[in-house]
Amino acid sequence: MKVSIIIPVKAINDYIRESIPHILDLDFQDFEILIFTDYLETVSFPKTKVISSGPVSPSYKRDMALEHAQGEILAFLDDDAYPKQDWITKALKHFEQREVASVCGPAVTPFSDPFWAKLSGAFYTSLLGSGMERFRYWPGRKIKEVEDYPSVNLWVRKNVFKEVGGFDTHYWPGEDTKLCLEIIKKGYKIVYDPKIFVWHHRRNSFKKHLLQISRYAVHRGFFAKKYPETSLKPAYFIPSLFTIYTFLYLAFSLFCVVRLSVSWYSSPVYVYFAFTLAASLIEAIRSKNVAVGLLLPFVFFLSHVTYGVGFLLGLLKKELKR
Questions:
Q1: pTM of the predicted model, to two decimals?
Q2: Three-class secondary structure assignment of the chain
Q3: Which one is the CATH code of 3-204: 2.60.40.1840, 3.40.50.300, 3.90.550.10, 3.30.420.40?
Q4: pLDDT digits (tens, 9 = 90+) for 280-321
């Protein structure tokens, strides 16, 4: 099966220049690369078409694959990601099953990433950061079916992509959640394989990390009521409950005459503190970086509060604006 690798980007950048050699070195060569840029670019790469889309969203650019892609399989890849050599080979074997319409795999932080990107990556790979979804950011142990997956490393049969109407360009982020939901509703399967592996650079500043967390949270909060089939899960509410508790705890600490340090109300603080220390230690050992372990407790706390507030805002929104 011929594969069309779809990469949306504003303009050709250093990430693209890093990714293309890795793609060209894949052990399966029946593929094409389609890069959709805002404006016309003069650069060229082997086996690559650089197509001007205008200044539109990534979801709109990915939908343009229906018009331009020659492959039977669409492999969606972010511009700041690059694959392992057997990426296509591992993915295509799953499409031998007719009921499988989509496959996906982990997007792992490169060891060469700068410190703040590693810190962001450590948050995502931790159970305290991503919960049971951490297999998206660190290879899981087994092949399994999933019902929602980000488009950084997502494969879809072209005919099924067309059948479900492609990405909903009204949303970004969140368009991948909507696409996966439509695929599931049609009765197809989405298969996760830890060996369908790409490296994915993280945000290289804490501010950008929190902005990303906030965008994810707002969309998930909105989707929890708009598309409850896959987004109305108890785990998504936990950061919001934690955030509400935190603000109440601070209020009681300031205005209550009862010493909270000896009351039952304080016990979740100590439990959370213990979990953050344990998770930070695990990630420090995994990354072999002491500084990551020292800063992660603060990253966990601020990320959880940011997500909690964003999720509540999403729940309150009547509609999302791109």
A1: 0.91
A2: CCEEEEEECCCCCHHHHHHHHHHHCCCCCCEEEEEEECCCCCCCCCCEEEEECCCCCHHHHHHCHHHHCCCCEEEEECCCEEECCCHHHHHHHHHHCCCEEEEECCEECCCCCCHHHHHHHHHHHCHHHHHHHHHHCCCCCCCEEECCCCCCEEEEEHHHHHHCCCCCCCCCCCHHHHHHHHHHHCCCEEEECCCCCEEECCCCCHHHHHHHHHHHHHHHHHHHHHCHHHHCCHHHHHHHHHHHHHHHHHHHHHHCCCCHHHCHHHHHHHHHHHHHHHHHHHHHHHHCCHHHHHHHHHHHHHHHHHHHHHHHHHHHCCCCCC
A3: 3.90.550.10
A4: 999 999 888 999 999 999 999 999 999 999 999 999 998 886
